[in-house]
Write a structure and sequence with these properties.
Blueprint (H helix, E strand, L loop, with lengths): L2 E5 L8 H11 L3 E7 L9 H14 L4 E6 L3 H9 L5 E5 L6 H13 L3 E6 L6 H4 L7 E5 L14 H14 L5 E5 L7 H7 L3 E4 L1 H4 L4 H10 L3
Parallel strand pairs: 1-2, 1-8, 2-3, 3-4, 4-5, 5-6, 6-7, 7-8
Helix pairs in contact: 1-2, 1-9
């Protein structure tokens, strides 16, 4: 069964507390926090995501899945570490070199938080493979990061297969998360390719019944 990390990007501020409670009772496995700085990606969600993270941390024990789409990685690690999230994921493309990637991996882990690295659709999987032994999670973007409601890019599913094979062949304890365009119609493609966690936003938040949608996403069989 695939786990569901619900993106709170589309949650309305005025209904946030009620929505977070409903997501918890509906069975989401994680709250996915999309932190965008308006530089690495066009949209800026820093204030909204910080407010939501603060609210969630005070009302729920559901793990926080923090996805940093930012240029200033260290500043945001510091900002979100106080909430003790389950995982903090940063983008490979935001780093200048391999040494910087390793520095951030260690910095996150030194804060006793699990570390993930994300790659954009156009980034070659070979660029992230060497870091997999040190990661809890590899997040494969199945759309261009920065906004919700996009359609899954079919070619990205092949990346999931490649990374899953490497993880199995090397007996690694690394999870694969996918993010972008995931819904009832697309979740089986990424599940069958080897994804362990699916980030889902609009398909859940726009639904009338969160519990039914989350159950269908977890159990959808081709």
């Amino acid at each position: 069964m695939i786990e569901i990390s619900t993106s709170v990007l589309g949650v309305e501020k005025e209904n946030s507390i009620k929505t977070f409670y409903n997501l918890e009772t509906a069975g989401t496995n994680y709250y996915h926090i999309d932190v965008m700085d308006g530089k690495f990606v066009e949209q800026n969600t820093e204030e909204k995501m910080y407010t939501f993270t603060n609210e969630i941390s005070q009302m729920s024990n559901i793990p926080l899945d923090v996805h940093l789409m930012v240029e200033n990685i260290k500043e945001n690690i510091d900002r979100y570490s106080i909430f003790k999230p389950h995982i903090i994921t940063f983008h490979l493309e935001a780093c200048k070199n391999k040494e910087e990637v390793k520095k951030y991996i260690k910095y996150i882990q030194d804060n006793e938080i699990k570390c993930g690295i994300s790659i954009k659709p156009n980034t070659n999987v070979e660029e992230v493979i060497e870091f997999l032994p040190y990661l809890h999670l590899c997040l494969i973007m199945t759309v261009e990061p920065g906004k919700g409601g996009q359609k899954l890019i079919p070619e990205t599913v092949e990346k999931v297969k490649i990374i899953k094979k490497y993880i199995k062949d090397n007996n690694l304890d690394t999870y694969i998360e996918v993010d972008g365009g995931i819904n009832i119609n697309t979740i089986n493609a990424v599940r069958n390719a080897g994804a362990d966690i699916a980030v889902v936003g609009n398909a859940i938040i726009s639904a009338k019944d969160y519990k039914t949608v989350i159950k269908e996403l977890k159990n959808n069989i081709s």
